[in-house]
Amino acid sequence: MKNLHNALQLKQLYLLKQLGYKYTDNIPSEIEEEKIELPKDIELLKKLTLDCHLCELSKSRQKVVFGEGNIEADVMFIGEGPGAIEDSMGLPFMGHSGELLTKMIENVLHIPRESTYICNIVKCRPPKNREPSPSEAITCRPYLLKQIEIIKPKIIVTLGATAYHYLTNDENPISRVRGAVIKGDRYNIIPTFHPSYLLRNPSAKREVMQDLLKVKELM
Ligand code: URA
After folding, report:
1. What own/partner pairs with CB < 8 Å and gap ≥ 24 does 36-43 have?
2. Are the C-beta atoms of 16 and 24 separated by less than 8 Å?
3. Helices marked H in the chain
4. Do the beta carbons of residue 196 and residue 97 sit within 8 Å?
5. For a pocket test of ligand 1, which of 64, 65, 76, 120 has the largest count of ligand atoms closer than 8 A to its C-beta?
6. For a pocket test of ligand 1, which of 76, 85, 86 has the largest count of ligand atoms closer than 8 A to its C-beta?
7. CATH number of the 37-218 domain
8. CB neighbours of 48 closer than 8 A, spacing ≥ 6?
9. Domain extents for the chain?
């Protein structure tokens, strides 16, 4: 919650600056904890996220891409951030990499995409599809953590290095951690390659298939 608290504090300071303040003694530290507690209801959380202006990405986005799927899913997929198509539709993984992700879910896990939950590290599109910055990822993190808390997946599949890194804070390269089952109290994490990497390197599909077979085993 501390990051969200800091972000809200920063937002208030920006507001004061816009109003012409150059200095304030009155740092808005009295943002009460209960006021920044995110809702435990997914629809209320979504509503709040759709109205988020806590980082720079909110200025250039068309739509917030909150995430979609079964809120009782056992398996959650976490990508990096929305691309152009997702930004215009407000839904995750809608383009070519989404098509590939859907095929992999259906053909390897043998479940419909809708029975999983799919979201991203950041909910708004980074301009020109650049990687989200650490501060953008950290600011958006409370929304993701609350989604995880509500959905309670058994397995989280992180797609690509950025998703793995920002979810776990582990700096190991994806090539080293890919396919590992990282056991946790509440969920296991299985890092794998991002579908857009697979579109550029089709030979890596075999490894991702192996990773998804591990997911299936654990389901
Ligand atoms: N890439 C991602 O990481 N997420 C999306 O939603 C789409 C493409």
Report:
1. 36/1, 36/4, 36/5, 36/8, 37/1, 38/4, 38/142, 38/143, 38/146, 39/146, 40/146, 40/149, 40/150, 41/150, 42/71, 42/147, 42/150, 42/151
2. yes
3. 2-18, 33-36, 42-50, 57-60, 84-89, 96-104, 134-151, 160-168, 174-177, 195-200, 205-218
4. yes
5. 120
6. 86
7. 3.40.470.10
8. 38, 39, 143
9. 37-218
- Give the tens place of pLDDT for each residue, 103-152: 999 999 999 999 999 999 999 999 999 999 999 999 999 999 999 999 99
Residue 100 CA, ligand 1 centroid: distance in Å: 11
Task: Report the predicted TM-score, pTM, of the whole model to 2 decimal places.
Answer: 0.86
The two tokens of residue 19 are: 């109003």
- Would you say 136 and 126 are in contact if contact means Cβ atoms under 8 Å apart? yes
CA distances from 219 to 153, 198, 212 (A): 10, 24, 10
Which residues have C-beta atoms less than 6 Å from ligand 1? 79-83, 86, 92-93, 97, 120
Q: Which pLDDT score, from 0 to 100, does residue 37 have? A: 87
- Ligand 1 center to 199 CA (angstroms): 13
φ, ψ for residue 98, nearest 5 deg: -65, -40
Instruction: Collect all residues with Cβ–Cβ distance below 8 Å to 121 and sequence separation of at least 6.
Output: 78, 79, 80, 81, 132, 137, 140, 141, 144, 162, 163, 166, 167
